Give the backbone structure.
Amino acid sequence: MSEIDEKLESFLKFLCQRAKELGASEAVAIPASDIVVDERVALKCRVPLCPFYGTNLMCPPNVMPISEFKDILKHYRAAILIQTAPFGTPEEFADPVELAETWEIFKSAGGKQEQPSTPTTDYLSALRDSLDNQYKMISEIESLCIREGYHFAAGLAGAGCLLCDQCVGAKSGLPCRYPFKARPSMDALGIAVVATTEKAGMRLSFAKNEARSWVGLILID
């Protein structure tokens, strides 16, 4: 971390420890130059078409273009990757269901309406709880950075925003209901999450018999 001075390096260690105290299963500090941005990530928003594409304020095309984010990223020195993992694995807890059905259950898992308890709903609710906890961690880490004078700290989430059961959407002309809590995902801005975590030595698996995990990021400068 040649671009990172002693003061910032010490602060990054503190932030990683704090993230673990808040529930992160792993937290790693990296130079901002290790964040991999790849324009092909945008393709995965549309092939297959993500339900959030064009409908969620925190997802493309309602966020800044990847090219703009790449220019902004050049001004940052460091970042923290935080990983939160639910208990269990898809193979162990989830019944076989169609992808579209799984997605609908996942979206509703955080809503006020209680879902019948099944292996699938229980597993997806654990995923939602893990994602909600990540939002809290990102917010607290950002606040700690700003208090220490790192005023450009900015957090990115590990998935499309699910703070509302249904986003107001860009076409409504209405503002976001949670402007200080909502965050675009890493993918939304073109970050290749797997490539970035590999550089950081953080393991991220999509294997059937392994637990899923969310990875968020806080840019610091």
Observations:
- The chain has one domain: 6-220.
- The beta strands are 26-31, 78-84, 154-156, 214-220.
- Helices lie at 6-21, 41-46, 66-73, 90-93, 99-108, 119-147, 193-200.
- The first strand starts at residue 26 and ends at 31.
